[in-house]
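To: structure subgroup
Subject: Chain for Friday's discussion

All,

I'm putting the inputs and outputs inline so they're searchable in the archive.
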Amino acid sequence: MISVTKSSESKTVSERDSGDGRLLASLGEQVRALREQRGITRKSLSAATGVSERHLANIEYGEGNVSVLVLDQVAAALDCSLAELIGDFNARSPEWLMIRALLTNRNEAELRHIRIAIGEMFDGDQAALPDSRRIALIGLRGAGKSTLGRMLADRLDVPFLELSREIELLAACTIGEIQALYGADAFRRYQKRALAESIAAHEDAVIAIPGGLVSDTDAFDLLLSNCRCIWLQATPEDHMQRVIEQGDFRPLQGHSEAMHDLQQILESRQPHYARAHLRLDTSKQSLDRTFERLHELMRKISTASEQNQPSKPNLSQEMTS
């Protein structure tokens, strides 16, 4: 099933610079990007696919002479189509190719503006605030979801939920056990079901969301449609320090590598987090000041909703200024 790979030492310059070499390099970049975007380690991907970590590493570095069957296993584990993994757009329609050409080299801000405009054109603007009193906090671990979430729930006198805890209660085991015993697909199913049940059970709540949920399109769409979603941002350094302060000292065992991995995850998930209705930088001021800004904005939004105002404030600017 797996053909023999060549080591980088045995490859000639002409082989690496050939069309095949560029294809393998592009494929490797896509596999690595999708894996990091979903927060899956190479070890976990190996367990889910039955492909060795060494072979996966060769694929990611463009050195793996990989079979279609292996690619199909990797695509299934990453919850994407084989076409998305390969990144081949040749079969798309001419109109799609022209649209794609127009979007090439646009920055994230421009792409977000275009997405919102398209959503408004088809009456599906996901940036619009839902008519809901539920508040969801998203972001990587260490962003402040639990701390700010509990403070906000206390101030609003509503329940505070950790969706990770709700998943564990539903599955009757830890998240680590779910992933180890049943795999990533099962975890996503538990995650979406726990979210749906939490939404059904609580009209008013503040919910802290696991960092990787945004990579599950169906679950994130469900969240955006039923909760006012706030992206809590922080610098990689603050993320790292806060995780350590929570008692997890694993990042210290390989600080430079851990920091690189964290930056890669932040970069790969940024387009997903950017779909949130609001955003708040938790690194720019003290915890008390951050909380007061968060609460004040929620008060303004609630007032605007009650008065049925047709326009909403520039939320992203107000939260990050």
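Points worth raising on Friday:
The first helix runs from residue 13 to 16.
The beta strands are 133-138, 160-162, 204-208, 228-233, 278-281.

D.
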